[in-house]
């Protein structure tokens, strides 16, 4: 296991999600087959919403294949019930009952009878995999393993069993169920968790969220009525059984409203004059039920439309078990072409993952995917650590520019520090080593908003959690011309060893005593937000070795030198107090995973020590392997009395040790299970078979622990003991030290006690093979070999951050050879944010890089005789330093992929009314938070010095005017212009909610400038409407911003398209995206011109002649990154101010910085006497704005 073993004390059941549904295909090409892996899948809301968003338009033909994993089998048992109900005849007539079954604690008789009837049906169909696969649901609902089906069937039988109890048993069951429900409810005065589901309108949902939470937990029903009807009296059996035992253990924060898009309830609907603060709980519940019904209709329709004989375009595969194990097993199956894997199903279990041969076997006609273009990890980041996730998901992520990994997590009071802390190092360095990077980190913006989280944090007393969802992609795939997404990088051994060591220190910072003492000196709030007191440890030495293994396959270096230097650093380290206690564990894992063998662990050295020492423990061993498996059996009578203390200690980490008179070696990568051990053979032929106790901690069997150790460790001393203990952390030490002593020891046995300790060549329940033969995971693959172009990475002196890339470009083209040998000086041009061109004469040679680089600061080393040029390029990662090409659109086969803008189905995005300005205060507050606190301090005239910030101001102005909050009546069109030249016209027909990303989107139609006679003729017909001052809003900009808008318009039309690119598409014919930067030519292809323009004509009938020439586009706010810099701080002025208007190309904006009032001439506004930039309409406005303006007012 890549994660430490945690004691399973008090656990909660999460049957219902706590975040709104998202579309899982939003980053894929419209018709691209979706192979989606859901880790920690939870309830099926994301599948529902994804099917719904793919039910219309171009993406309706997309094939969807979901592989879903959850450690909690009860979650999956419920999901299967839901999907099978929707596949049955007459499903839509039962939606209200299905709603009850899935969300309510208590059921009416009709809903209860439907649930039990469905469970009986599922039991009949699930006797084995064959019967399930050949049943009515097997063509779309598959089980990854036979063990999964067995576990689900066990739960369905338990649900049915509740109806066959005696009257006294039924009474006891209902009484215990009701007591557990009452005990689980939060007694806090105010619970507003579900308000987050309203996104930008969450501030209006606080009271309603609290009201619904109380009603839900008081009545057990999702309702606006605070009293449960008498006929709703049946406990929901699907909530009565889970990993927590045979009891109601639903998490106290559960609220069905959290799953839905509450913004649709609070945003003013078209034709409605209602303000958001007038929305009632009844309205909100009604909207949630409507959304659920829409999703169910889409799912039921696709299930009912597909036959069982042909391959299904919609498949869901379920696996009950550990997410990290599944990823490793999928990778093993993919590389070894085997359905049997060496990875255990889950912690506290012995069975290994064995995939269904019918789906994963090599001879299968339609094999199940083992590589994925979408991997969603839910909130596992908070539970198993982001480095563990990256290490196991990178190998199974498809090598395409659209392939995406999603992570979600909660950060504390300082979200801008969270990601580097989670990554145990610099974001860019980790990305280079592991091959995955947050898309928004490179882009410096995101379309997904979590600004409402920041507002909640600022406006509520206990707002210490900030939800962040990140999209990760393969490093370098933002570059259009980079073909090798596993591009070779080279790092000097000493720098790579330094980088590894920094990661090592951060991964195990809990062992740093000085750091702990420093934290103790902080305030209690700081300690709580740091997570130190929680005692949650995500990494052990194997986790670190897994990281090294991924890097070994990616990087070119002298690996042995790197590892030897790393070993020296670790051995000489004095910052981690117990670091050397785990050194043997580290070396053991390096060997087992085939990453590196230290000298003393060589087979020759081990055999030599064995021959000389002849230790008693190996007296019957003919040959000795480098590592052996130690099995420790702990009698139930010795461990059972400690359960209460362990349960009260949070999530204690278990570890083993080998202790001698003068030595102590701790091993953190252990395996545990309750069961009995049967031993066969002796000496090096001894084997162990464990029979698991299915009742686990509630049974009577011993606790069995096993772990790998270097065999030489057992020969260092003659009298050794084996122990099990709890890792000491502030959270575990305080409650346990009085009971267990300072070493937190749970049990210890002499190594010579053959009743309790066994030394084996293989792990228990293993086939007869040595662990070295299983090293296909890492050791069986060669290191990365140099490719045609290798990028050399230089880190800073501390080996924390990357400074520059160096590449050698061989000159092969004859004319360039001649130029170089004749003494010509090459120049370096920036082609894109990831690529450069070396120019010699009229010829050029391009090179592509994994992260943004700065060609202006390039250094050249020229070898004229050897005919090569070495280019040294500093990285361009500083905030605000973005190029114009920050919205890449990448060719992918015959399609186009987007790098940093998700796709939207505009027709499924709810439009909201702008008729009532009082109902739209939230719009400007939302859009204003595009700017970070740093950006707000930059004076904004025509240009700010940051192209991205200039684009943000233009978008800010566009939304302000389109919503009417800036100038009353929205203009008819927006003229994007550089100087006096208009290069594009935008017509906004609607403002819509983009609920999946908690944002809004402008439903726009773009008409780029063009000398086309037809377009000119059409525009002349409507110019009287368009060109009037009140109907056209001029948005002026500089050269770089215009170039950025050219890229943005291409991405904006691509992200919402409902049409296919034609075979003669200009992008394909000209081989260029955008087509041009000429302000008088169109940068976008003509494939979508006029498609769907009926909506445009309906909104603007007077502009009908333009309909054949406009292309639909989706314009969204570009939000600052709260994980990189402060957003929404006290220096951010007032976020509800009216947005500024971008200036024309010849003047700073004539607009009041306080109220947004526009001036009609140069003398109509007062100008700040100090900075000579900001203007005001009155002295009162200047006084009102001074508190915020003085922080960024700088004299010229």
From TrEMBL:
A Pfam family reported for this protein in Swiss-Prot or TrEMBL: zf-MYND
Name of the molecule in the record: MYND-type domain-containing protein
Lineage: Eukaryota, Fungi, Dikarya, Basidiomycota, Agaricomycotina
PANTHER family on file: DEFORMED EPIDERMAL AUTOREGULATORY FACTOR 1 HOMOLOG SUPPRESSIN, MYND-TYPE DOMAIN-CONTAINING PROTEIN
Superkingdom to which the source organism belongs: Eukaryota
Domain MYND-type: 1152-1193
One function term, GO molecular function aspect: DNA-binding transcription factor activity, RNA polymerase II-specific
Alphabetical keyword list: Metal-binding, Zinc, Zinc-finger
InterPro entries assigned: DUF4470, TF_DEAF-1, Znf_MYND
GO cellular component, one term: nucleus
């Amino acid at each position: 296991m890549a994660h430490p073993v945690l004691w399973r004390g008090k656990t909660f059941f999460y049957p219902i999600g706590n975040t709104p549904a998202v579309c899982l295909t939003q980053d894929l090409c419209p018709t691209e087959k979706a192979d989606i892996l859901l880790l920690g899948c939870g309830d099926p809301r994301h599948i529902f919403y994804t099917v719904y968003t793919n039910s219309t338009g171009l993406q309706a033909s997309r094939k969807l294949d979901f592989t879903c994993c959850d450690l909690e089998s009860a979650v999956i048992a419920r999901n299967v019930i839901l999907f099978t109900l929707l596949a049955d005849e007459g499903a839509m007539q039962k939606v209200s009952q299905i709603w009850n079954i899935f969300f309510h604690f208590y059921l009416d008789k009709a809903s209860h009878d439907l649930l039990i009837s469905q469970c009986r049906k599922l039991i009949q169909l699930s006797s084995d995999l064959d019967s399930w696969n050949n049943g009515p649901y097997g063509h779309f609902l598959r089980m990854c393993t036979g063990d999964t089906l067995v576990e689900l069937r066990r739960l369905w039988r338990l649900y049915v069993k509740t109806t066959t109890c005696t009257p006294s048993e039924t009474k006891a069951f209902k009484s215990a169920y009701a007591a557990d429900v009452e005990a689980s409810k939060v007694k806090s005065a105010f619970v507003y968790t579900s308000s987050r589901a309203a996104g930008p309108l969450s501030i209006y949902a606080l009271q309603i969220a609290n009201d619904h939470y109380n009603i839900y937990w008081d009545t057990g029903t999702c309702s606006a009525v605070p009293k449960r009807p008498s006929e709703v009296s049946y406990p929901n059996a699907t909530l009565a059984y889970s990993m927590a035992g045979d009891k109601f253990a639903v998490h106290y924060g559960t609220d069905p409203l959290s799953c839905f898009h509450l913004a649709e309830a609070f945003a003013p609907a078209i034709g409605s004059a209602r303000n958001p603060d007038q929305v009632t709980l009844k309205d909100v519940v009604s909207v949630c039920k409507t959304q659920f019904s829409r999703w169910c209709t889409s799912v039921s329709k696709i299930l009912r439309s597909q036959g069982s004989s042909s391959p299904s375009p919609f498949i869901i595969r379920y696996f009950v078990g550990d997410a990290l194990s599944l990823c490793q097993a999928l990778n093993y199956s993919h590389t070894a072409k085997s359905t049997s894997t060496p990875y255990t199903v889950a912690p506290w279990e012995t069975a290994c993952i064995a995939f269904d041969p019918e789906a994963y076997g090599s001879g299968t006609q339609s094999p199940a995917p083992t590589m994925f273009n979408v991997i969603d990890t839910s909130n596992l980041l908070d539970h198993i650590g982001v480095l563990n996730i990256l290490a196991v998901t990178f190998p199974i992520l498809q090598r395409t520019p659209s392939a995406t990994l999603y992570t979600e997590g909660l950060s504390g009071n300082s979200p801008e520090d969270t990601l580097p802390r989670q990554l145990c190092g610099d974001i860019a360095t980790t990305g280079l080593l592991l091959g995955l990077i947050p898309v928004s980190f490179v882009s410096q913006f995101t379309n997904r908003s979590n600004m409402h989280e920041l507002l909640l944090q600022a406006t509520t007393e206990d707002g210490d959690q900030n939800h962040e969802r990140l999209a990760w992609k393969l490093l370098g795939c933002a570059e259009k011309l980079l073909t090798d997404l596993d591009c070779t990088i080279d790092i000097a051994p000493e720098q790579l060893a330094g980088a590894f060591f920094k990661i090592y220190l951060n991964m195990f910072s809990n062992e740093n005593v000085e750091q702990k003492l420093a934290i103790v000196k902080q305030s209690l709030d700081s300690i709580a937000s740091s997570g130190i007191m929680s005692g949650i440890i995500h990494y052990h030495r194997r986790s670190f070795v897994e990281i090294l293994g991924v890097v070994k396959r990616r990087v070119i270096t002298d690996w042995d030198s790197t590892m030897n230097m790393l070993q020296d650093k670790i051995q000489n380290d004095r910052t981690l107090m117990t670091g050397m206690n785990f050194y043997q564990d580290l070396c053991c894992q390096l060997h087992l995973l085939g990453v590196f063998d230290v000298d003393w662990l060589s087979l020759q050295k081990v055999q030599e020590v064995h021959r000389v020492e002849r230790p008693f423990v190996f007296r019957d061993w003919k040959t000795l392997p480098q590592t052996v498996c130690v099995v420790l059996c702990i009698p139930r009578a010795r461990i059972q009395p400690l359960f209460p203390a362990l349960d009260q200690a949070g999530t204690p980490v278990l570890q083993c040790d080998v202790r001698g008179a003068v030595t102590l070696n701790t091993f953190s990568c252990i395996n545990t299970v309750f069961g009995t051990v049967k031993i066969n053979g002796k000496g090096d032929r001894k084997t162990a078979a464990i029979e698991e106790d299915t009742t686990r901690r509630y049974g009577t069997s011993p606790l069995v622990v096993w772990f790998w150790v270097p065999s030489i460790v057992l020969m260092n001393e003659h009298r050794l003991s084996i122990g099990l203990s709890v890792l000491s952390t502030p959270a575990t030490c305080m409650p346990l030290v009085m009971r267990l002593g300072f070493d937190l020891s749970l049990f210890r046995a002499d190594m010579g006690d053959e009743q309790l300790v066994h030394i084996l060549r293989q792990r228990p329940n293993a086939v007869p093979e040595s662990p070295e033969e299983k090293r296909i995971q890492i050791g069986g693959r060669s290191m990365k070999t140099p490719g045609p172009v290798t990028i050399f990475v230089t880190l800073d002196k501390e080996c924390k951050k990357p400074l520059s890339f160096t590449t050698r470009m061989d000159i092969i083209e004859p004319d360039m050879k001649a130029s170089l040998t004749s003494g010509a000086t090459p120049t370096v041009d920036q082609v894109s944010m990831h690529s450069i061109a070396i120019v010699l004469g009229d010829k050029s040679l391009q090179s592509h890089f994994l992260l943004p680089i700065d060609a202006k600061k390039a250094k050249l080393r020229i070898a004229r005789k050897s005919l090569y040029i070495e280019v040294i390029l500093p990285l361009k990662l500083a905030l605000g330093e973005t190029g114009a090409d920050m919205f890449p659109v990448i060719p992918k086969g015959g399609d186009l992929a987007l790098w940093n803008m998700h796709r939207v189905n505009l027709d499924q995005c709810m439009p909201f009314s702008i008729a009532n300005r009082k109902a739209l205060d939230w719009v400007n507050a939302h859009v204003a938070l595009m700017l970070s606190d740093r950006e707000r301090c930059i004076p904004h005239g025509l240009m700010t010095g940051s192209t991205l910030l200039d684009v943000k101001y233009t978008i800010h102005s566009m939304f302000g005017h389109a919503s009417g909050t800036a100038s009353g009546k929205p203009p008819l069109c927006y003229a994007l212009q550089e100087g006096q030249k208009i290069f594009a016209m935008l017509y906004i027909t609607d403002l819509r909610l983009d609920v999946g990303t908690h944002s809004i989107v402008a439903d726009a139609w773009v008409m780029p400038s063009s000398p086309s006679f037809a377009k000119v003729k059409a525009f002349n017909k409507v110019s009287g409407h368009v060109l009037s001052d009140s109907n056209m809003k001029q948005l002026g900009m500089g050269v770089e911003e215009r170039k950025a808008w050219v890229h943005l318009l291409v991405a904006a039309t691509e992200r919402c398209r409902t049409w296919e690119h034609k075979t003669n598409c200009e992008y394909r014919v000209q081989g260029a995206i955008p087509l041009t930067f000429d302000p008088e030519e169109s940068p976008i292809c003509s494939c979508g011109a006029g498609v769907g323009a009926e909506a445009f004509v309906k909104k603007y009938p007077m502009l009908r002649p333009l309909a054949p020439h406009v292309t639909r586009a989706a314009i969204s706010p570009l939000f600052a990154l709260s994980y990189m810099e402060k957003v929404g701080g006290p220096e951010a002025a007032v976020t509800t101010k009216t947005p500024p208007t971008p200036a024309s190309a010849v003047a700073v904006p004539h607009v009041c910085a306080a109220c947004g009032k526009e001036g009609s001439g140069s003398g109509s506004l007062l100008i700040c006497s100090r900075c000579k930039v900001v203007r005001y309409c009155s002295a009162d406005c200047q006084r009102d704005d001074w508190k915020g303006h003085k922080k960024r007012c700088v004299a010229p």
